[in-house]
Amino acid sequence: MNSIGFIGGGNMAESLIGGLLASGHKASLLHVSEPDNNRSSLLLAKYGVNCVADNAELVERTDLLLFAVKPQLLQQIALPLRDIIQAKQPSIISIAAGVRSVDLEQWLGGELAIVRVMPNTPALVRAGASGLYANHRVSNEQKNQAESIMRSVGITVWLENESQMDIVTALSGSGPAYIFKVIEAMEEAATLAGLARETSRLLAIETVLGAAKLAVESEDSPAELRRKVTSPGGTTEQGLKQLEQGGIEKLFQSTINAAVDRAREMGDELSIKT
C-alpha cells in the first residue's frame, strides 16, 4: 500500500481517514499536516495516524498527496511546495471545490498527475457520492488509487471532461442541502397539519432515507417507482399534482443551473489568482 498524505485535517479528511482504515489501510501509512494542534491531537488519538506540522515534511513522507483545504487557501499552500513536489513527483488528489486541475498544476510547477474530486458531505457517514476527473498524466494505477480512496466513503463516478465537474458540484455536491430543505418543508407542512414536530421530523427523515434506499436497491427507475406507488385517485396522486402544478421540474432545473453557473464563476475567480 502507498503512504497517503493529507494536507488539511478537517471533516472531509477525517471521513476519508476513517473510511481507509475501515477498508484495511494501515494507520502507519496515513499522514496528516494540520496547523490546528487540537485537531491534530484528536486525529492522532482517534485514528493513530501520523501528524506533522510542516507541509514539506508531509510531502517527503508520502507517495500520494491529498489536498483537503479550503479552495481560497489552496494557492498559498501549494506555491511553497512547488520545488519539493517537482522533485518528489507524488500522485496528487484535490478535493478543494472549484479549483481546476490546470490551475493547481500551474501552482505546483506543471507536469503533474492530478485527480480532481468533488465529494459531498454524506461521505461523513460513508454514504458519499464523488465525481472524479483525471488529467492526461494520470496513469491507470493512479486512477485506481484515487478511486479506491473515494470509494472508502461512498460511490464514485469518473468524468470525461473537467467542465462536467461544475454540474457534479451543483448536483451531488450541493444536493444534500436541497434534500435537507425538502425535509424541512415536509416537516413544517406536517406540523402545521397537526402532528408533533418531533414526529413530523422523524417521519420526513425516514421517508427520504427509505425512498433513497429503495431507489438504490430496485431495478426500476425512480419514475417507475413513483408510478408504482401512485394509485389512481389516491392521496399520492393528489399530492403529486400539487408538486407538478407548482412547477417542481422547472424549479429543480433552475436550482441546478444556478448552482452550475456559480461553480463556473468560482472556478474563474480562483483561476484569476494565478
Structural class: alpha/beta
Question: Helical proportion?
Answer: 55-70%
- Pattern of helices and strands: EHEHEHEHHEHEEHEHHHHHH
Largest sheet: 8 strands, mixed
Architecture of the largest domain, according to CATH?
3-Layer(aba) Sandwich
**How many domains?**
2
If strands are numbered along the chain, what order do they take across the biggest sheet? 3-2-1-4-5-6-7-8
Oligomeric state of the chains?
single chain
User: Could you list the spans in which at least 5 consecutive residues all have pLDDT below 50?
Assistant: none
General form: elongated
Q: Give me the count of strands.
A: 8
Task: Describe the structure using short key phrases.
274 residues; alpha/beta; Rossmann fold; ProC C-terminal domain-like fold; 2 domains; eight-stranded mixed β-sheet; 13 helices; elongated
Describe this structure in words.
- The protein has an eight-stranded mixed beta sheet, sandwiched between helices.
- It has helices at 11-22, 37-47, 55-61, 71-78, 82-88, 101-107, 140-151, 165-173, 175-193, 197-217, 222-229, 235-245, 248-272; strands at residues 4-7, 30-33, 50-52, 64-67, 91-94, 114-118, 128-134, 154-158.
- 34% of the residues are buried.
- α9 (175-193) packs across α10 (197-217).
- The protein is built from 13 helices and eight strands.
- The protein folds into two domains: 4-163, NAD(P)-binding Rossmann-like Domain (Rossmann fold); 175-264, ProC C-terminal domain-like (ProC C-terminal domain-like fold, Orthogonal Bundle).
- By secondary structure, it is an alpha/beta fold.
- The chain is 57% helix and 13% strand.
- The mean pLDDT is 95.
- The two termini are 34 Å apart.
- The radius of gyration is 21 Å and the shape is elongated.
